[in-house]
Design brief:
Strand order of the largest sheet: 5-4-1-6-8-7-9
CATH topology of the largest domain: Spore Coat Polysaccharide Biosynthesis Protein SpsA, Chain A
Catalytic activity: an N-acylneuraminate + CTP = a CMP-N-acyl-beta-neuraminate + diphosphate
Radius of gyration: 25 Å
Pfam family, one: CTP_transf_3
Organism: Poecilia formosa
Keywords: Nucleotidyltransferase, Transferase
CATH architecture of the largest domain: Alpha-Beta Complex
GO molecular function: N-acylneuraminate cytidylyltransferase activity
Structural class: alpha/beta
Number of strands: 17
Largest sheet: 7 strands, mixed
Shape: elongated
CATH superfamily of the largest domain: Spore Coat Polysaccharide Biosynthesis Protein SpsA, Chain A
Number of domains: 2
CATH class of the largest domain: Alpha Beta
Amino acid sequence: MESRQEDSMAAQKQGLSGGNDSPEEAQQHIAALILARGGSKGIRLKNIKRLAGIHLIGWVLRAAIDSGEFNSVWVSTDHDEIENVANLWGAKVHRRSQEVSKDSSTSLETIQEFLKKNAACNIQVVCNIQATSPCLHPTHLKEALKKIKKDGYDSVFSVVRKYQFRWKEVKKGSDECTQPENLNPAKRPRRQDWNGELIENGSFYFATRDLIVKEGRLQGGKVAYFEMEPEHSVDIDVDIDWPLAEQRVLRYGYFGRGVSLIFCRVSGCLTDGRVFLSVSGEDMVCVHSRDTTGLRMLQNDGVEVVLLTSRDDPVTQSLSGKLKTMLSCEVVDVGDEPLKDVQEVMEQRKLSWKNVAYMGNDISDASCLNLAGLSGVPADASKEAANAGSFACRQAAGMGALREFAEHILQQTEKAKMQMKQDRIDRNNF
């Protein structure tokens, strides 16, 4: 994850507007900021609860980092667990004070504190992204930011078009009759004859530093809106929203750029870790056919498979030759800490972490799980591995977890291909 933000940083240093700006404009620092307080009242620690296998905040962090538009991507929080997840996704962390961590604290107050305490960064534009908007895409942020960088707006916020008739509320016990607020009942329009209304959807708010600090506003000055499609406008406040949001994000969420290689631990991922002893005294392990099918599905889609066996485990060592033949894949022996051996394989293939998926189950896998573009753990993984992985399988090791993670990878890859194809269409037509 960190490599993607580093790529974004490098791009920003080359200039923010295609190289035609003045030196002052070209060095302007644009930051993305996600506010993630630990004291959510509707759903406990909602911001890091897993939605479709991924931390809720991970969906917007991935979109922000992959947009390539920000010099820095931050999470403002008062909670250790949220800080750990933010680091996992490659974001910087601003530990907010107790003064702006109350139920009554406003977003404006929190952002003002962030700018004050990070004055050395010389941040000139802030994009406040809501963690509860999992269908946000990099293109939304890129197009909205153009209005500030190219068109000179001071603030830009996201909206969605609604087709709802509004009526005036009448207080209980009042003799007053309700009145229409946005329609004439005598000439009630059909949906196709009405443009609807633009409503804030809370997905993101861009604002200049001067507007936030000097005027104390997130919206003001020269104001513009960015209209998002209804399918990308998702908000989560209470538990009942969760299953609906999960269905929506699986269909319309942003799934990254895809991967070209997967590393998978044999013991504890491909197998359940148990060893059987035959009558003849031979050690045997069990491999689920669903998992081997999952690996073949990845190979058929062009994803290279590398299985990792432990040098200290004679059972998986003896299994490696059979797996190599059966799955036509490479098998690599790794030490107690697999990071070094994995990086050697990546260097040979000239791959960066964002192009790699990793499946592990133990504390020794945590470093690789943290760095991989996509990372998965079986349901029975250790706590350390589960905290480091971005996708938590419902199945246990050796019981179909690898197939589940493979399907997740393929889904993300397909989404990425469709999104890149649409981006090309948009660039060619507009």
